[in-house]
Amino acid sequence: MIVIVMGVSGSGKSTIGRLLAASLNWNFSDADDFHPPANIEKMSRGIPLDDADRKPWLDRMQRAIDGWLEGDTNAVLACSALKASYRQSLLRDLQRMRLVYLKGSFELISHRLRSRQNHYMKADLLQSQFDTLEEPEEAIVADASQPPEEIVRMILLELRAGGSEHSS
Q1: DSSP character for 83?
Q2: 91-95: which pairs have CB atoms within 8 A and are 24 or more residues apart?
Q3: In whole angstroms, what is the distance from residue 92 CA to residue 90 CA?
């Protein structure tokens, strides 16, 4: 199975993804690692990415997901996946893939990003993330304001139950 943990930057995707993968003893990947250097440079300068910028990033993740599915590898991928079209291209096999949406308010996420250091995504890009966000209709929905361990516990319960569209 592959679980994609999605949400805006600062929602906790990497933290939750790592904890979830560790609790399941699965592989973990962060979508940030799939960005070409030009994208990271652009975001570092405070310039939001457009769909053309995201294309090579999505292509790289699609290839990774295809490899995991072919190899029957269990994995957790932390990925913003803000638009429905991005999620459609990544969710390659709905029988073996699940989507988790970390939902948080602009105020919560903005506070987190302001306190974050050594990351290319800056707080001033957050509005563009919320503007781009198309909330998923089919996902396990987790409240990003909850403690990470509680979020992971809820996700594990939902995965075991096969649920979607639930929140903590």
Answers
A1: S
A2: 91/4, 92/62, 92/65, 92/66, 93/2, 93/69
A3: 6
Please give the single-letter amino acid code of residue 44: S
pTM of the model: 0.89
For the ranges 47-51, 118-122, 129-133, 150-154, which has the lowest average pLDDT?
118-122
Token readout for 147 is 């403690």
Query: 42: buried, middle or exposed (CB in 10 Å: 19+, 13-18, 0-12)?
Result: middle
| φ and ψ at residue 53, rounded to 5 degrees | -65, -35
**Six-digit token string for 61:** 């993740």
Count of positions (residues) in the chain = 168
C-alpha 127 chain-centroid distance? 17
